[in-house]
Amino acid sequence: MHNSPNSLAFNDGWQYAPAPESTDHISLEKQFDLFIGGKFVAPEEGRYFETINPATEEQIASVGLATQTDVDRAVKAARKAFAGPWSKMKAAERGKYIYRIARMLQERSREFAVIESLDGGKPIRESRDIDIPLAAAHFFYYAGWADKLEYAFPGRNVAALGVAGQIIPWNFPLLMAAWKIAPALACGNTVVLKPAESTPLTALKLAEIVQEAGLPPGVVNIVTGAGETGAAIVNHADVDKVAFTGSTEVGRIIQRALAGTSKKYTLELGGKAANIIFADAAIDQAVEGIVNGIFFNQGHVCCAGSRLFVQESAVDEVVRKLKDRMETLIIGDPLDKNTDIGAINSAGQLETIESYLSLGREEGAEMYQSSCAVPERGYWCRPTIFTGVSQSNRIVQEEIFGPVLAIQTFRTLEEGLSKANNTPYGLSGGVWTDKGAKIFKMTQKLRAGVVWANTFNKFDPTSPFGGYKESGVGREGGLHGLDAYLKLEAR
Amino acid sequence: MATAADRVPVAKTYKIYIDGKFPRTESGRYFALEDDDGATIANICRGSRKDFRNAVVAARNAFGGWSGTSAYLRGQILYRIAEMLEGRQEQFVAELVQQGLSKRKARNETEAAIDRLIYFAGWSDKYQQVFSSVNPVSSSHFNFSVLESTGVVSIIAPDESGLLGLVSNVAPAIVGGNTVVVLASEKLPLCAISFAEVLHSSDVPGGVVNILTGYRAELTGQFSSHMDVNAVIYCDADAEIAASIQQQAADNIKRVIARVDVDWNKTSAQHPYLIRDTQEVKTTWHPIGS
Hints:
The complex is a heterodimer of chains A (491) and B (290).
Chain A lengths: L30 E2 L1 E3 L2 E3 L6 E6 L4 E7 L3 H21 L2 H17 L1 H12 L3 H22 L10 E5 L2 E5 L5 H14 L3 E5 L6 H12 L7 E3 L4 H8 L6 E5 L2 H11 L5 E5 L5 E4 L5 H13 L11 E5 L3 H13 L19 H16 L3 E4 L14 E4 L6 H4 L6 E7 L2 H8 L7 E5 L3 H10 L4 E4 L18 E2 L12 E5 L1
Parallel strand pairs in A: 1-5, 7-8, 7-10, 8-9, 10-11, 12-13, 12-17, 13-16, 15-16, 17-18
Antiparallel strand pairs in A: 2-3, 4-5, 6-20, 11-19, 14-15
Helix pairs in contact in A: 1-7, 2-4, 3-4, 4-5, 9-10
Chain B lengths: L29 E5 L5 E6 L3 H20 L2 H17 L1 H10 L4 H21 L3 H5 L1 E2 L6 E9 L2 E5 L7 H12 L3 E5 L6 H11 L8 E4 L3 H10 L5 E4 L4 H11 L5 E4 L14 H4 L2 E9 L3
Parallel strand pairs in B: 5-6, 5-8, 6-7, 8-9
Antiparallel strand pairs in B: 1-2, 3-4, 4-10
Helix pairs in contact in B: 2-4, 3-4, 4-6, 8-9
């Protein structure tokens, strides 16, 4: 499809043969129990819920629904492990268990990648090259901290908190489990983790690894369920720490629920990141950055670059090239190695995204979607951009969590900056320019916890991640991520 | 009746401090501060919600400039505050004595407040080096994390330590580039306003520190719920009030910092983690390549 005389033709000249990743090496039980005290145990009330493949709408497995009683059992198991073997163990030995998890994850990485893509709909290229390797790297990084914690906080003694209750989202299921579990264990805590109800499988497979790695029973407990299960964890009297990643709306509820308790908490919440393109940027690279910023993982990314700001003199070129590039994106089977954009994670999320697409048009913005074919079954959303939007539009202010980009322009650096900072969120941001001084001016003035200059959506276990303002409290990753799981006391 | 030779002393009007100015409370209300014998020492402004809002606006306006000043300059300004306080020691000792402290305790508190300012002045260009990091990411990027000020911080200052408690909470917040709105001790409010005069003559830009006096029961809710305040510090709330502060703070995911049961007289009550409490970690990535 040609958008302008200068556009590039890809799809009519290049046909990709299907290249699906094989699934015959995957073993998935039909039914998963809860992982409590080192064993898989049936939920007390015997209820299970289905997890489906969002690309086919077919059921993959049924998963135990943890009630308050089950959460209580899990917390008790975690408390027992904390009071017993885990606290008594030498820190270096604790670290070796975490190293084991990292190694076993690496060994089984392809299996995990396939399950991640089946359960969550993300392209295999991403689960294979990003999610799973990063999860393993996270365990490897924090394993080494276990016996070095006294060097992390000058002038302070450090101590574990106890039992950590952890609730994670569906956009990076295994990676978020790693972000939560690895530092918690390295700091000497035990955990009760709840994966998201639409993507529980890789966390349960991780439980198998925890079991095989021989961790003392109860150090890691995995309970599955939806909001009620999460609330039972947050409100449990014997939990010392709550770590949550999810929406700002739920984060607020959790912060309120924890008022009046002595529980420590970290919240990784929503975002509406600005991705700012100056006219002097390397435009082709910037266009790649825009695509990576908003279409990576179907836009199910809290730090997605969902607000694009282009310097006025470059906007025509950027939008033209962006449309051309969108036209080359392949949407479809998450297990196909050629797929760029996989399935939307759930029917509910697709509905949310579609309601924003209608809203954007009602607000008077102009919508453009690429023309690629989408499969008949499953949940899909074509890459979408909106132009002609204003600061007050809801599609500019609210987190959509889908492949939907709102494009605005600016003339001066100050205007770009003030528009970019005009949001209650402050998780991440991006700047594209070839001028070093301008980069630092912008990265200093953007009120956000992670800023990518001439790149976007990069992650690493050594690199702290977390938000300003309503995007959350606390950091995960790196040395700074240890703080979330330790008591600091005067020496 | 005083004779012609006697001089009538001039009593001071204690006003609040907003945006580098000393207005009376917009509400026109006051409460009488009394000594142990029930005699009025001074009429104190009973600050209102509107005063607080005005102070937040001033603090927000001052934030961009103050957070952008160099660490060296912030250090010098804190040092300057200490210099000004040193020169006015006698006034602070007298006020503390008026409010019931012994002469010795009053002197100790004043000296400790001066020394605490010097302590935090010295941290201005050092805490960043202690708490920041260069992160060895495995991809080809230069990646580093630095601290940046959280923003506008509301401080409900300790009720039992009118000068030292106030200074111990304001200094670490502003040395880190935040701007603050402080609720002074309700019991011991005199020094807070005199300290505002010290700030006023110390090159602290207007709006960086705003100080209100008033009833805690009336103002605590405003301090914890305002949507343009990024962090709230409280120093001696009972369990119920602490819970309500935490709850209201959730409206805009404020950072909540509790500093209860701290003996501000001890040197262990001064450390750079007090600065870090109102800092955000920012991580920046840039590719390494050509």
